[in-house]
């Protein structure tokens, strides 16, 4: 499942049986996923983990927000790929699969994803003509052959 503005790899099952097997892998976190994003500002550290619970922001739906009282567990690993003049390119690995998790976690770090119509404002929104979030890699076990397969899509930004 990708947000409509996110580019990259996605998988489509050819039949109901395959859909069930692949869906089960996502549900049981047996897949591998990584994303590339360009975020505002320069991240000083080289890597880290964001472990913040997320919940729907009912007054601004479909936006999500960090919510320590009612939020669901959400965890994201991140690592700097490249520091640009006013932005940082990062690899993001979601360890859970919450709605807008990568977007909200990066915003919580103070580095909103550039071009994000939901969470970026002013110059950060205008810094890119599209959401700078890309599903770069997806790995899962083929539902028929049992072979673990990894698919990669080059980042378009």
What would a concise description of this structure say?
With 157 residues, the protein is of the alpha+beta class.
What this model shows, in words?
16% of the residues lie in helices and 34% in strands. The protein contains three helices and nine strands. Strands 1, 2, 3, 6, 7, 8 and 9 form a seven-stranded mixed sheet that branches. A two-stranded antiparallel sheet has the order 4-5. The chain is globular, with a radius of gyration of 16 Å. The two termini are 21 Å apart. The mean pLDDT is 96.
Descriptors:
globular; 9 strands; single chain; two-stranded antiparallel sheet; 157 residues; alpha+beta
SSE layout and pairing:
Blueprint: E1 7-8, H1 16-27, E2 32-40, E3 47-51, E4 54-56, E5 64-66, E6 75-83, E7 87-94, H2 101-108, H3 122-126, E8 133-141, E9 148-152
How many whole angstroms does the radius of gyration measure?
A: 16 Å
**What is the approximate shape?**
globular
Strand tally is 9
What's the N-to-C terminus distance? 21 Å
Q: Major sheet, described briefly?
A: 7 strands, mixed
Which residues sit in consecutive blocks of at least 5 with pLDDT less than 50?
none
The class by helix and strand makeup works out as alpha+beta
Tell me the fraction of residues in β-strands, as a range.
Answer: 25-35%
* H/I helix tally: 3
Run of helices and strands: EHEEEEEEHHEE
- Mean pLDDT, to the nearest integer, reads 96
Helix content: 10-25%
């Amino acid at each position: 499942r990708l947000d409509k503005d996110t580019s990259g790899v996605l998988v489509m099952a050819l039949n109901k049986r395959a859909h069930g097997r692949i869906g089960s892998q996502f549900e049981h976190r047996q897949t591998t996923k990584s994303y590339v994003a360009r975020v505002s500002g320069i991240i000083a550290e080289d890597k880290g983990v964001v472990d913040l619970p997320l919940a729907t922001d009912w007054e601004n739906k479909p936006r999500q927000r960090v919510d320590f009282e009612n939020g669901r567990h959400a965890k994201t690993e991140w690592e700097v790929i490249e520091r640009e003049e006013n932005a940082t390119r990062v690899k993001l690995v979601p360890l859970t699969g919450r709605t807008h998790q990568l977007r909200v976690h990066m915003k919580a770090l103070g580095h909103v994803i550039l071009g994000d119509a939901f969470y970026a404002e002013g110059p950060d929104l205008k810094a890119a003509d599209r959401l700078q979030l890309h599903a770069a890699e997806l790995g899962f076990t083929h539902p028929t052959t049992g072979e673990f397969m990894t698919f990669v899509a080059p980042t378009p930004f």
